Amino acid sequence: MSPVDRRTVLTGAAALAVAGTARAAVAPDLEALAKDPTNSAGVESVQERRQAARARLTALETAMAQTPAGDTGVVLASVIHGARSEVRLADFAYGDGGSVYPVTYRSGQHTQVTAGKASAAEIDNETARIAADTANGILQPDFLLKRALTAVETAQFKAEGEVQAALESQIVALTAQLAVAGDRPGVGQLPGGKDYYTAQLGLALSSPVDPKAGMKLARQRLDAIWDELDELLKRQGLKSGPAHERLQRFARDPRYLYPQSDTGRSKMVADMNRMLDDVLERLPDAFDPVDIPDSQVERMSPADELAGVQGKRSGTSYIIDQRRTRDRPVWTLPSVVHHELYPGHMLPPAVRPAPASALQGRYGASAWGEGWPIYAETVAAEIGALELWPEARIGFLHWQAFRTARIVADIGLHTEDWSREEAVRTLTRLQGGPIYFITIDEDIDRMCLTPGANAAQGLSTLSFLERRAVAAKVSGFDLKTFHRAAMAYGPVSPDGFAAALSVNS
After folding, report:
1. What does the domain layout of the chain look like in residue ranges?
2. Alpha helices, DSSP H, located in 192-242
3. Average pLDDT of 427-447?
4. Which of 253, 296, 447, 484 has the most C-beta neighbours closer than 10 Å?
5. Are the C-beta atoms of 493 and 463 separated by less than 8 Å?
6. In whole angstroms, what is the distance from residue 63 CA to residue 119 CA?
7. Residue 99 in 3-state DSSP?
8. What is the pLDDT of residues 75-120, one digit of tens each?
9. CA distances for 39 relative to 35, 109, 119, 428, angstroms
10. pLDDT interval class at 66 (50, 70, 90)
11. Calpha distance 458→214 (Å, rounded)
């Protein structure tokens, strides 16, 4: 394919973006319901927060009953189960913003010390919650408490004055909890923990979720992924040993590795921009025309690399982490382009420039934000965007195995009482070894802290695939219409997506 001007690809039908903007409109009284009462009405007690959540749900259910099918109906269908899940979560004495524990090695006021933003009063509030949790048997697993203690002790060493004193008290509280904590990693160990987990999944997807059914669906998809990977690896001459071990051997094949040098880094970026050009030319095969802003893959600054900054999207570009170029085989990179750029993270805002409604921000299937880009990797593969890089199909399947195996590990940890060691072993086997940006041990530790988050992302992707498979059986199915409905309203739940398909049919 010839080079393309990314500023003009798919130009000529901005009407879709305009339509998406119009669809963002939601009645102001409904938008008011999205506000957090702790910020807007001075509500402070847990009981009052529960009452406020129930009041919002009642108002939303009333609005749904009175709203005809249409754009506002799509938004309401997308948020209603999230509101129901919020009511369920309000009944638990733990959990805040998706994290189960008030202070972890990744979260808490201690993370603000270096920036000079830590508050002694907020640290004291955290410490009070830690003490209350200890008294009520809401115990962080010991291996995570040790990491939290190390992080808080490091921050306390750097802090001064009231903040330092407050952190010292927090260390005492964490140490007291560690003395009685066990090593069970999942929320199933907590009072009502399995119900809490199901509610968290329901909030992230804004859809009813049966964890057992989700586990079954994920394992079925993994079977199909590994059947294909097994065959592809055999074609590469890798015929002996378990498939996940053969995949790791293939990842070390020097034919596909970039030199750990300035030349290697420049070549990687140039290759990824070729991958981007290629997929942009193919987008009209699966999507309506829309203006695409100039986008590219860029090198990270040496200072950011030295500081350990991971790859990130910046404006309309993707800044790639190249600290370890020899851990990024060329065949893994096309799906990175498709996920981070197009048709992944950057296509929905091009289709629908307006931000999602406040209601969707609170309840609207947060897992959609990763579910769509993971699904978009599949679309890119289907329209031929792996063809220039023959081994890229292996990379695509490895990324899909990673996302899908996370569903299994997340649900297993929190609803089937897996040990941390069992979770690490299972994820290693089902995923085929670590991917570039996170080790398997670290991934499992994070799953312990944010139950359901990874599973919800993968299940969101599977809902796209399942919904499309059903829709494709109906006479007159059009893939572009399907994708228009998926992106025109911002984050949508499976029920909201069904409503969107009806509006766009």
Report:
1. 109-189, 211-463+476-504
2. 193-205, 211-235
3. 94
4. 447
5. no
6. 41
7. strand
8. 888 999 999 999 999 888 888 666 799 999 999 999 999 999 999 9
9. 8, 20, 18, 43
10. confident
11. 9
Q: Yes or no: say if 187 and 141 are a contact pair by the CB < 8 Å rule.
A: no
Other CB atoms closer than 10 Å to residue 172's CB: what's the count? 12
**Degrees to nearest 5, angle at CA 99 with 95 and 104:** 115
Q: How far is it, in rounded angstroms, from Cα 393 to Cα 288?
A: 25
Give 36's pLDDT tier (boundaries 50, 70, 90). low
Which is more confidently placed, 491 or 157? 157
| Contact status, residue 165 vs residue 120, Cβ threshold 8 Å | yes
Question: Which pLDDT score is estimated for 35?
Answer: 67
Contact between 454 and 430 under an 8 Å Cβ cutoff? The reply is: no
Question: Sheet containing 312-314: which strands, arranged edge to edge?
Answer: 296-299, 317-320, 312-314
Q: Give the C-alpha separation, 330 to 262, whole Å.
A: 16
Phi, psi dihedrals of residue 474, rounded to the nearest 5°: -90, 135
Between the alpha carbon of residue 3 and those of residues 273, 281, 364, the distances in Å are 10, 9, 38
Separation in Å, CA 355 to CA 75, 291, 345, 365, 410: 13, 17, 14, 15, 30
**Neighbour tally for 208: CB within 10 Å:** 14
Residue 29 to residue 228: CA distance in whole angstroms? 51
Residue 13 pLDDT greater than 50, yes or no: no
Q: Which amino acid is at 500?
A: A
